[in-house]
Structure prediction request, 242 residues.
Amino acid sequence: MATIRELYQNAGNPNLTHWKDIKILSIAEASLLTCAINPIDYEFDYNSNLVFQLKHKKPINWMDCLMLMRALVEAIATQELKSPLIVLERENDFGYYGESIEQSRTGIDDIDTMSYPKTKIHREELKEWLKKRDYFEQQLSVIDVESTLEKAKSFYPHNNEISLLPEPTYTTPALDALNGVVQEFWINYDPESNLPIPKQSVVEEWIKENYPDVQGAAMRTYIDKICRHPIAKGGRIKKINP
Prediction:
């Protein structure tokens, strides 16, 4: 399963912040936005038409979107995710129509007929559901920026990888580079392992290549020092004692 950050990076980090004030979303809107696809580019009427558009246009992350819509429908049908409005797609001699039912009456039999465009969920309910399924990452945030940028203040779950769900988050090129170094070199670092520790020069060169807006060798050195594990000063190969 891809995280929201990965989905947005795959799609080139589109700006979808104009959706941030929408508090109630359809299953289709929530899935598209979570997968970095703009719902404005799609026509909403029935499930089959929306699925056809995604398969025809094939935007980046379109398969993730289809699977997420299915997962959200199952969560609503099994009472795992609350919904203020549930609409089922029905058909009679005159064509298709929608039937609204209470969530207490839904079950797994309704999974195949629940409407993606018309069934609604609250933004906060969606965010909590996504959190429980590890769509969000642990990222370094809240930095105690002093004159030398020598230490990070804390780690906490941070959702700036998605424009749909959280409120706007302050950032700078240096903070972006700092988060990038954590993800590239330290997120899976194990002090007890005997793997080579990245050298300071390697980290600084990586910052220079991937974050050109971070100007100055001193700033790149500060970023390396903030992210570097206490036992990994300067970068070295850990000795194995016999």
The first strand starts at residue 24 and ends at 26. The first helix runs from residue 4 to 10.
